[in-house]
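Support request from a user on the community tier.

User writes: "When I paste my structure tokens into the form, the page sometimes reloads and wipes my input. The last time it worked, I copied everything first. Here is what I submitted, just in case something in the input itself triggers the reload:"
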């Protein structure tokens, strides 16, 4: 929402409790451009929350964290509460739905509905604690695998990709997603390479491709500039989403997955520079102005490595 506020309206659909935490969350969200008219209240229930235990020194300073989630009011958010306006959006993002079980279990119905309305469908994942607790061998994404063929872009991390696919390597996971009909999939792996593929009219055909993380971000982390890794995955997805919005706004006939991944890499990496998942702007456009130099440096990095064959929008 911060990156695209000049060209797009971003609405959040979900619910919170009527407790103190919910009110604090609303106050924080009020400092962002996110539209909250569809963010409801379930009185008598606690707001979803996460306790984050962070170790910024883990993995040679790249950091790691453990999340302890309380689902709270999201148990009450049902598929029928999503209004028609959600499905009529240009882009429908189903983000971290394993934390909203009724929505997660209905993805194989909700995704086709969004596609039938002409929406671009983006799914981002989160660690599926319920499936893990139930001992499920392969994590579900909806009530059936029908969900996958209605996903234009799937963004996940290595652990979640392996659990969703029931495989033991990222390459095998990407092949699983391809066979299930996913238009494009991107798998992150912390400070290691990002891997992706595409096979759709929207993105064209891209074989499995690997790109590194941002050298500029890594250098600053090693020099001691760090917050924590909370929100890196969400900011990666947000950077990709912003790029897709800009590309659609330009009226492009074909979308560049590489360009979107570049914005994802620098947006996710930049989240390591501050504590928590959200950068609160002091003025509109501040975050974009902070990210742009890292994006330009990253494009130069990929050009020098011979990883970009065609010109990419800077």
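"...and here is what came back when it finally went through:"
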């Amino acid at each position: 929402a911060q990156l695209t506020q000049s060209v797009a309206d971003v609405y959040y659909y979900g619910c919170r409790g009527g407790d103190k935490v919910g009110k604090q969350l609303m106050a924080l969200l009020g400092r962002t451009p996110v539209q909250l008219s569809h963010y409801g209240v379930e009185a008598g229930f606690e707001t979803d929350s996460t306790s984050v235990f962070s170790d910024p020194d883990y993995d040679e300073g790249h950091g790691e964290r453990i999340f302890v989630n309380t689902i709270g009011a999201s148990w009450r958010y049902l598929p029928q509460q999503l209004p028609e306006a959600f499905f009529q959006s240009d882009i429908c993002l189903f983000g971290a739905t394993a934390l909203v079980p009724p929505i997660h279990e209905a993805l194989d119905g909700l995704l086709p509905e969004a596609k039938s309305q002409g929406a671009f469908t983006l799914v981002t994942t989160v660690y599926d604690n319920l499936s893990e607790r139930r001992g499920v061998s392969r994590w579900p994404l909806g009530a059936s695998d029908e969900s996958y063929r209605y996903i234009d872009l799937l963004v996940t991390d290595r652990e979640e990709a392996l659990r969703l696919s029931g495989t033991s390597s990222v390459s095998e996971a990407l092949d699983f997603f391809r066979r299930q009909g996913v238009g494009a999939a991107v798998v992150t792996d912390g400070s290691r390479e990002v891997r992706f593929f595409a096979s759709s009219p929207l993105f064209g055909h891209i074989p499995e491709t690997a790109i590194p993380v941002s050298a500029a971000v890594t250098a600053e982390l090693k020099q001691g500039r760090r917050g924590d890794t909370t929100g890196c995955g969400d900011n990666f997805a947000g950077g990709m989403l912003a790029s897709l919005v800009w590309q659609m706004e330009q009226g492009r006939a074909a979308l560049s997955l590489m360009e979107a991944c570049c914005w994802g890499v620098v947006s996710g990496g930049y989240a390591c520079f501050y504590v928590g998942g959200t950068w609160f702007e002091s003025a509109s456009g501040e975050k974009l102005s902070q990210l742009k130099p890292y994006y330009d440096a990253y494009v130069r990095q990929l050009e020098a490595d011979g990883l970009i064959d065609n010109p990419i929008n800077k």
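Agent notes: The reload is a front-end session timeout and is unrelated to the input. The beta strands are 14-17, 39-42, 49-55, 64-70, 91-95, 120-124, 153-157, 184-188, 194-200, 204-211. The chain has a mean pLDDT of 93. Escalated to web team.
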